[in-house]
Task: structure prediction
Amino acid sequence: MSHLCLVTDIKDGQAKAYPHPSASEDRDIIIVRQGLNVYGYINRCPHAGTNLNWQEDEFMTDDEQFMMCFTHGALFEPNTGKCVAGPCAGAHLSEVKLEVENGKVFYAG
Ligand code: FES
Result:
């Protein structure tokens, strides 16, 4: 398993992008932290396929309730990747399985 980061590298309620360990995936992995839990998604919006962020590691709404695609404003649940508002409502971000051991986050497929 590839080590990606520490849980504590990401501020609680925020998200960061890390290079995908697979050579066949050119998009980053977004890792969202909620307390001690982390969730991983490919940084590709299901609407038009852009990166979600417009600036480095700018993924969250101001209230940290949702991840937002800055291209057309789709909102995603951090713990499911489901789009709950915007042009791709009902679609999902592509999930990346992560495992946490001793505070370290690993890519698990
Ligand atoms: S590309 Fe993300 S909302 Fe359109």
